[in-house]
Design a protein that fits this description.
3 domains, D-arabinono-1,4-lactone oxidase activity, Vanillyl-alcohol Oxidase, Chain A, domain 3, FAD binding, eight-stranded antiparallel beta sheet, alpha+beta, Uridine Diphospho-n-acetylenolpyruvylglucosamine Reductase, domain 3, Oxidoreductase, Uridine Diphospho-n-acetylenolpyruvylglucosamine Reductase, domain 2, Oxid_FAD_bind_N, oxidoreductase
Length: 465
């Protein structure tokens, strides 16, 4: 979102905004200490921790099956609760377990093809699936912002990309295989549409997905454009851009008056590879501005416009799997809600206004996307188009703001939480948001009557104590 040259200039001379000198440099580089890590072992058990560091546990067993038969045998006798983890990119406590922790890393790759549909093992990481599909001239219709997750993980949490006509990843799944808590194998597809609709987004509560049949598209080149403009201009043009571009998203940047826009469109133009990701440099500029000028919104905004407002647009042309996802080396914690499309941008404006009024410590941009509807029972996009708003906090910063001040705004406007992102909802609150919630709970009880797949967090989520 910012050229390397501009980032270097900003990082090297930004302190001059308040006069320069050693003291200013010290302020600009001040850094909170890293949050304390839990012990690496406890009672002889080894620590498991998620990507941002806030979720962890000490599993009694760690299981790494190599095939479906081995998985079924393991699950039937494993210590409960049995939980499956991929890359640990969920911020909610879906993964922690004192029982058996399962990884499907040994069950990855494309197993076969049925026409243009790929049969993909659930442990496959998205970053590996892209080139594997491209080798056959095919591609996923869309990709999320990060491609480190496993296929099973993105289905379990309804992970999505952006595009008014493009569904979340699970929307392209036409069939899947599920191993239940007692080791039975269930094929969910056109012959069992109810099970498929439930299992495509199931939080790992119905069983372990081992493979999916995934609809694919031709592997086309996309043109990626990134540009910075005034936030109000982006708000005014966003709806038209979602209607015009194959993929469109933007980042509202509090305390700058700016927004970074990203579009992707199919093209036959020759390849123009994407350069190194500049997001970390962009974040460093924003963090330095917070540290230097957090006492004055006006000065902070003026400095941001001077440093970032004139950044020239960036363009790249390449296969979609190389462009749609981004490296995220800077760790954070995140809350994301999905709002009805008709109130999407109104809610965003309210969130930005609140942050700029109350929380000068915030420096992370706010990610804004639009997603097409689908029919999965627990999909946040079930029943109509939704727009997502993702608010982030640096992993060293206090993220209680997200629950105390931001989440109430989302809930007041009918928002549904991203299953892998921070939220406080459970039980009756979720039942009010999902028409098929009761049907899902009934199927869950049928497939796992002993609640062997439920950790304490999921029991609370489903209102089971």
């Amino acid at each position: 979102m910012i050229s390397r040259r501009t980032a270097l200039i900003a990082g090297g001379t930004g302190v001059a905004v308040v006069g320069g000198g050693a003291a200013a440099v010290a302020i600009a580089n001040r850094e909170k200490p890293e949050p304390p890590a839990p012990p690496s072992t406890k009672d002889g058990k080894v620590l498991w921790r998620n990507w941002s560091g806030i979720q962890y546990d000490y599993p009694a067993q760690r299981l790494a099956p190599k095939d479906e038969g081995e998985l079924a045998a393991m699950i039937a006798t494993a210590a409960a609760p049995v939980r499956v983890v991929g890359s640990g990119h969920s911020f909610t406590p879906l993964g922690p377990t004192s029982g058996a922790l399962v990884t499907l890393d040994g069950m990855s790759g494309i197993e076969g093809w049925e026409g243009d549909q790929a049969i993909v093992k659930a442990g496959t990481r998205l970053g590996a699936l892209g080139p594997a599909l491209a080798a056959k001239g095919r591609a996923m219709a869309n990709l999320p912002d990060i491609n480190k997750q496993s296929v099973g993980g993105v289905l379990g949490t309804a992970t999505h990309g952006t595009g008014k006509t493009l569904k979340a990843i699970h929307g392209d799944v036409t069939a899947l295989t599920l191993v239940t808590a007692d080791g039975k194998v269930i094929e969910a597809g056109p012959a069992r549409p109810e099970v498929l609709a439930a299992a495509k987004v199931a939080l790992g509560a119905l069983g372990v997905i081992t493979r999916v049949k995934l609809a694919t598209t031709p592997n086309r080149r996309l043109q990626r454009r990134v540009w910075v403009e005034p936030f109000e201009e982006t708000l005014a043009k966003a709806e038209a851009r979602w209607s015009t571009h194959r993929n469109f998203e933007f980042y509202a940047v509090p305390f700058t008056g700016l927004a970074a826009n990203i579009s992707h469109d199919e093209t036959d133009a020759p390849a123009q590879p994407r350069g190194p990701d500049q997001d970390s440099a962009f974040l460093e500029v924003l963090r330095s501005l917070r540290n230097l000028l957090g006492f004055s919104n006006g000065m902070r905004k003026a400095a941001a416009k001077a440093l970032l407002g004139g950044v020239e647009p960036e363009t790249a042309v390449d296969e979609g799997w190389k462009l749609l996802s981004t490296e995220r080396p800077v760790r954070f914690n995140e809350m994301e809600y999905h709002l009805p499309a008709e109130v999407h941008l109104k809610v965003l404006a309210e969130v930005v206004a609140l942050i700029e009024k109350e929380r000068p410590d915030v420096f992370f941009p706010i990610e804004v996307r639009r997603i097409a509807p689908d029919d999965a029972w627990l999909s946040p996009f079930q029943g109509g188009a939704r727009g997502s708003i993702a608010v982030h906090a640096h992993y060293k910063d206090d993220y209680r703001l997200l629950f105390e001040r931001i989440e109430p705004i989302f809930l007041r406007h009918g928002g549904r939480p991203h299953w892998g992102k921070l939220h406080s909802l459970k039980g009756d609150q979720l039942a009010a948001l999902y028409p098929r919630w009761g049907d899902f709970l009934a199927l869950r009880a049928e497939l796992d009557p002993g609640q062997r797949l439920l950790n304490p967090y999921l029991k609370g989520l489903f209102g089971l104590g």
